[in-house]
Specification:
Layout lengths: L2 H25 L4 H10 L4 H9 L7 H14 L2 H4 L2 H32 L5 H4 L8 H16 L4 H15 L6 H18 L4 H10 L1 H16 L11 H11 L4 H20 L13 H11 L1 H12 L11 H13 L4 H28 L6 H12 L7 E3 L2 H10 L2 H4 L2 E5 L1 H7 L4 H9 L7 E3 H7 L2 E6 L7 H7 L3 E8 L2 E7 L17
Parallel strand pairs: 1-2, 1-4, 2-3
Antiparallel strand pairs: 4-6, 5-6
């Protein structure tokens, strides 16, 4: 394949990625984390955002929310505007990977690298999410291609910008500084040359972390116990490799291990690949090894910091997989590269064909929170009794998505101590109590409800955070099923007369 044709194909892929995710973003409702973004970003200027983050209203550096403010004004429609940074970041990844792989393995291998992220959750989920992960991955991709060309002052500056922006979007990006630092140390050892501008970019790029450190520590103090996310375990860290591409976790971990040791072997017993222009330099191999090992590095870091870990925290691993796979294929010959390219294109075409069919047939089904809110509104009789949404996250989603005339009786109920018992985490309850300071959310602590209301309706959706039916029944309160459907169950609850109560701190809403 000629370089010009390959570059043209990558350009089409970039345009398609942007357009496709723009369409999806316009109809996909915000989920809880995205509503958190919306709440913090709407606080106003930098000082107001900083104040909200000081109170642990969300978990990311303030620059992310300022970017979201700008994007929301630019994007027009709320669902699109707040997701525009992620769409842009993910759309540029194929181009960056193409530019990184092409000098080492030629245009066809570079095209293979460009297509691989399109089959991952980075493209399928986080490319249309109003969270920093998609834009962060785009910044890391920029840093990757800039580092390869860091002999040029302009590219060194681009390397610094990519790293600084990544750490200003997501705190876990600090792990990438260690990866790039080890890679540059390998360059120093192999070439006996100290590249001051690269080390300066690494040092200056990490500066935002120290500026934002008080916010990170405030968040850790607020939610330093059990986390929302998957428990920190080696099994969970290894399972992320399969989860990236929606395949069996064991298969994903095995494939990542094979790729890691194949890269390591190629570096130790170097020979010119069958396809491509040159061998991969040692420092670039070390860089790819570090990216591949990112989930394990995050596992260690989370364990040391007594924090949590989720695959979205290590999405740049997908970049390492996408760059390493074609470089290894190049050593197997042109036939292997062509076969892999054909399989990738067919898989991507099948995936996207299914996406467009589902989009055309189920356009109205994407409004799940609003639909659930309408279902609950129909299920409960008119009157003054409030409607408790058992899952606090679902409550926030429903209130954001549905019209106010439907949700005005809805309330959220928080009890961090009970949440630790029934859900294994109190983070959602604690966060909900913080969010009500910054948004018009009717979220109450349980004793307050018990003091004002002996009877109410309760909506249960069966999620991991839907524990109020079990708790109320275990406490001996009357919990009677009114209706059940795929959308969830609605109960009528009557509290025992000796239910815990505290003095009123505001009235419970009623119709």
């Amino acid at each position: 394949m000629s370089g010009r044709l390959a570059f043209f194909c990558v350009g089409l892929l970039v345009i398609y990625s942007f357009a496709r995710n723009l369409v999806l973003a316009s109809v996909r409702p915000f989920w809880f984390d995205e509503v958190c973004t919306w709440i913090v970003a709407r606080q106003g200027g930098a000082s107001a955002v900083w104040k909200a983050l000081q109170q642990a209203a969300d978990s990311h550096p303030p620059l992310f929310y300022l970017i979201e403010q700008w994007a929301a004004r630019l994007g027009g429609q709320e669902l699109v505007g707040y997701r525009l940074p992620a769409i842009l970041g993910v759309s540029l990844i194929p181009l960056c990977l193409f530019l990184f792989v092409r000098p080492r393995a030629g245009p066809l291998c570079a095209l293979v690298a460009a297509f691989i992220p399109g089959l991952s959750l980075l493209f399928l989920s986080y490319g249309t999410e109003a969270r920093p992960y998609g834009l962060e991955a785009g910044c890391v991709a920029l840093a990757l291609v800039s580092y390869q060309r860091a002999e040029s002052p302009a590219w060194a500056a681009s390397f610094w910008a990519g790293l600084a922006l990544a750490i200003s979007l997501h705190y876990f990006a600090v792990l990438l500084f260690a990866v790039f630092a080890v890679a540059e140390a390998a360059f120093w050892l192999a070439n006996r040359r100290f590249r001051l501008r690269v080390w300066a970019a690494l040092a200056l790029g990490s500066a935002p972390l120290f500026f934002f450190l008080p916010l990170l520590l405030a968040y850790k103090r607020a939610y330093g116990g059990p986390m929302f996310v998957l428990p920190v375990s080696l099994t969970g860290a290894l399972g992320t490799y399969g989860s990236f591409f929606n395949v069996n976790r064991e298969i994903g971990a095995a494939a990542a291990a094979v790729m890691f040791f194949a890269l390591l072997g190629a570096a130790m017993w170097s020979r010119k690949p069958a396809v491509g222009n040159s061998e991969v330099p040692l420092h670039e191999t070390v860089l790819l090894l570090g990216l591949l090992a990112s989930p394990l590095l995050a596992f260690v870091a989370a364990g040391v910091a007594h924090g949590g870990m989720h695959l979205r925290y290590v999405l740049p691993t997908v970049l390492g997989i996408a760059a390493a796979a074609p470089l290894l294929l190049a050593r197997l010959g042109r036939g292997a590269v062509k076969l892999a390219a054909a399989i990738l294109v067919l898989a991507f075409a099948g995936q996207e064909g299914s996406f467009w069919l589902a989009h055309l047939r189920q356009r109205d089904a994407v409004g799940a929170p609003a639909s659930a809110a309408a279902y609950v509104d129909r299920a409960v009789p008119p009157g003054g009794e409030p409607v408790v949404i058992s899952d606090l996250g679902r409550y926030v989603e429903m209130v954001h998505a549905a019209p106010g005339e439907i949700t005005r009786r809805f309330i959220g109920l928080a009890d961090p101590a009970a949440a630790r018992t029934y859900a294994g985490t109190d983070s959602l309850d604690k966060l909900a109590l913080v969010l009500r300071r910054f948004a018009p959310l009717n979220i109450y602590e349980y004793p307050q409800l018990a003091q004002q209301r002996r009877a109410f309706y309760l909506y249960s959706n069966g999620s991991a955070y839907d524990w109020w039916p079990a708790r109320l029944a275990a406490d001996g309160h009357e919990v009677c099923l009114i209706t059940a459907a795929p959308a969830g169950a609605v109960y009528h609850v009557v509290l025992r007369s000796n239910a815990d109560a505290v003095p009123s701190q505001g009235s419970i809403p009623q119709r």
